[in-house]
Specification:
The complex is a heterodimer of chains A (135) and B (500). Chain A has 135 residues and is α+β, with helices and mostly antiparallel strands. Helices cover 25% and strands 42% of the residues of chain A. The longest helix of chain A is centred in the middle third of the chain and has 15 residues, at 43-57. Chain A is globular and about 40 Å long. Chain B folds into 4 domains: 7-130, Roll (Nuclear Transport Factor 2, Chain: A), CATH 3.10.450.50; 143-194 and 282-370, Probable tRNA modification gtpase trme, domain 1 (Gyrase A, domain 2, 2-Layer Sandwich), CATH 3.30.1360; 195-280 and 387-418, Aminomethyltransferase beta-barrel domains (Alpha-Beta Plaits, 2-Layer Sandwich); 419-500, Elongation Factor Tu (Ef-tu), domain 3 (Beta Barrel). Chain B contains 11 helices and 28 strands. In chain B, strand 19 (311-316) and strand 20 (319-324) form a beta hairpin. Classes of the chains: A alpha+beta (135), B alpha+beta (500).
């Protein structure tokens, strides 16, 4: 499977909350990195637990990819994650990048880069106080 | 030097220049209308000028920078890469156990170029491990300021107890970012812990003359004065800003000392017609070169004509307040005293809105800038055994104005000469956080104490203010002992940078 197709397959499985389909894409000893989980996961067993955890704590979670560059074994893509946690009253949208590394049609590493700070657990209110951002 | 203007080459040139802290080289890499997207900046920065300002601020707050790019995928106009960034913070001290506070993270960067210049630079990484995790716990034995909700909303993480009140000191910005906001834009400080000792009555000025060291005989309504309160032994109790906002009313806006109790005691047997109390007035400070622009349309009175160390009773965003052109930054700035704490948060919110176009940042009092400017503070501990002449404040003592508390003792010190004096120090090497005074010895073996020590962002080195033997001269060397070892300091003048 072309590496870009593997990325799209992972995105579709993630968005469809299809754990089985997602796990089928990974090599047995793959590495999975997602800041929301707080640690690097090794192997299908840990990845299954991690993905399951994401699906449990989120009411919805959708990855949208807007651009990608690929070489023979690696694809780097940027996009956004829209997610709503059960505990939150509203969804958030976070810029993200995904790095997918594959060998022999299996994902050996999938690293997600995003800013998990909005998901902080204490309750003093919004964190983003800087006033010089312009959108 | 970039030999061919591909996205990959510009990516590598940027990383190399950042590593070398060469901000001017980075400036040449960006197009005028470029966009920078960086999680630490809480949003997009548009335009080369704004981007370069942000990058230079970041560089000023970091040292020992390493940037490793891996898995770079590039075409002529676009480059995507993974990488590792490592750096030491400047101005953030290690944890008490010595664990350094570092800025280390893995990232993805995407770069788009057009006509040989970067038009979009986007980074993706998790800032959660890079920021303070949570504010420290509070205890109800000390007061929260009336601006608590505002400070909490701005992400406060550390406090100092000041006049029995939690005063926010550390927010979720780096010291370099806060320093840049103060020196280039405008900052808002919750200083509700600054209390006002109010002296009211027909003898208010006469009593203030008795309590403080400067001559107030020419004091007019609308005047402010930086002055001292001493004990009968001539030791400094505090260095308040005195305000005369109304006829027969004097406020002493003071540091961390129970001045109202002291003033009440002095008044009891003074025979003067005064009432002493602490009004329900909690100030904020708006400091920085854009403070006047920000406040001009929010304050009913004409602030442009309000002189340095003057105050006016006016309305701010429709709220009754006293506004003074004073503050702890050593530069342009104002203090706003809403006339009841119930107005504090409406005032705060109005200031946040008014400051938005000027890049207002909520910060604590900036000790880095204060020490550079020689603006210190006195409180119970920092006063220990120090008289005005030792503190370098002899100009604030008018021995001929008539009777005041401490006059007799200070007359003796003035006649005999102070045995110690306050000096600036250029300090070599790394320094831990100053949590108590560091002992020093000069080359003759005379003892002293370092009472302030910070990194100077303007001088890009560590500086300190010490009290030491009066014989010390410019250029003399002292040995400092601190909790992590020793350091050498060279005596210099205070302030360290020009006042304006």
């Amino acid at each position: 499977m072309p590496i870009q197709a593997q990325l799209n397959a992972y995105r579709d499985a993630f968005n469809g909350r299809d754990l089985t389909a997602a796990l089928m894409l990974f090599a047995e000893h793959a590495v999975f990195e997602m800041p929301l989980l707080g640690q690097r996961l090794f192997g299908k067993r840990e990845i299954a637990i991690g993905l399951q955890r994401i699906f449990e704590v989120t009411e919805s979670a959708q990855i949208q990819l807007s651009g990608a560059k690929e070489s023979q074994n690696i694809v780097i893509a940027e996009g956004r994650l829209q997610a709503k946690l059960h505990r939150d009253s509203h969804a958030v949208e976070i810029p993200l990048a995904v790095v997918l590394e594959a060998r022999q049609n299996d994902i050996v590493r999938l690293s997600t880069y995003l800013d998990a700070r909005p998901y902080r657990l204490w309750a003093d209110g919004t964190l983003f106080a800087s006033a010089h951002a312009s959108n | 030097m970039v030999t061919k203007f591909t996205a990959g080459n510009l990516l590598r040139a940027y990383c190399d220049a950042f590593r070398r802290r060469a901000g001017d080289e980075i400036e040449n890499l960006f197009a005028e209308d470029a966009v920078l997207e960086l999680p630490l900046l809480d949003g997009r920065v548009v335009g080369k000028t704004a981007i370069v300002a942000e990058i230079k601020t970041a560089i000023r707050g970091l040292k020992n920078i390493k940037v490793v790019l891996e898995n770079t995928i590039e075409t002529d106009t676009e480059a995507f890469a993974e990488g590792i960034f490592c750096a030491d913070h400047i101005g953030i001290h290690p944890l008490v156990d010595g664990t350094p506070i570092r800025l280390d993270f893995r990232f993805v960067v995407t770069v788009k170029i057009s006509e040989g210049k970067i038009v979009r630079w986007a980074e993706y990484f998790d800032t959660k491990p890079l920021k303070p995790r949570e504010r420290t716990h509070l205890y109800p034995i000390s007061r929260r300021s009336a601006y608590w909700d505002g400070a909490a909303n701005a992400g406060v993480s550390e406090f100092m107890v000041y006049n029995h009140t939690y005063m926010p000191l550390v927010y979720h910005h780096s010291p370099a970012e806060e320093y840049a906001a103060l020196t280039e834009r405008v900052t808002l400080w919750d200083v509700g812990g600054e209390r006002q000792t109010q002296i009211r009555g027909a003898d208010a000025i006469r009593f203030a003359q008795l309590l403080t060291t400067r001559d107030l005989s020419k004091l007019k309504v609308g005047d402010c004065k930086y002055t001292l309160v001493c004990d009968p032994q001539g030791k400094i109790l505090c260095d308040p800003v005195l305000l005369n906002p109304w006829e027969n009313v004097v406020w002493l806006s003071h540091g961390d000392v129970d001045l109202t109790l002291w003033a009440t005691g002095v008044a009891m047997n003074s025979g003067l017609q005064v009432e002493i109390d602490e009004p329900d007035v909690q100030p904020v400070q708006v400091q920085g070169p854009k403070s006047l622009d920000m406040l001009r349309n929010l304050v009913e009175s004409r602030l442009d004509s309000l002189g340095f160390y003057k105050c006016v009773v006016t309305k701010v965003a429709g709220i009754d307040a006293v506004v003074s052109r004073t503050g702890w930054s050593g530069g342009l700035g104002f203090e706003i005293f809403p006339l009841a704490s119930k107005h504090a948060m409406p005032l705060w919110n109005a200031l946040i809105e008014a400051g938005r176009p000027y890049g207002l940042m909520v910060t604590g009092p900036n000790v880095f800038r204060a020490v550079e400017k020689g603006v210190t503070d006195t409180a119970y501990y920092s006063n220990s055994g120090m008289n005005p002449y030792e503190a370098g404040h002899g100009r604030l003592v008018d021995l001929e104005k008539g009777e005041f508390v401490g006059r007799q003792a200070l007359r003796k010190v003035a006649a005999e000469g102070a045995k110690r004096k306050t000096v600036g120090l250029l300090i070599d090497g790394e320094l831990p956080n100053l949590e108590w005074y560091w002992p020093l010895k000069d080359q003759k073996g005379n003892p002293g104490e370092v009472r302030w020590a910070v990194h100077s962002f303007e001088l890009d080195r560590n500086i300190g203010i010490a009290i030491a033997d009066a014989s010390l001269e410019l250029g003399d060397v002292v040995q400092i002992s601190h909790q992590a070892g020793t350091a050498q300091g060279t005596v210099t003048k205070v302030p360290f940078v020009e006042l304006n």
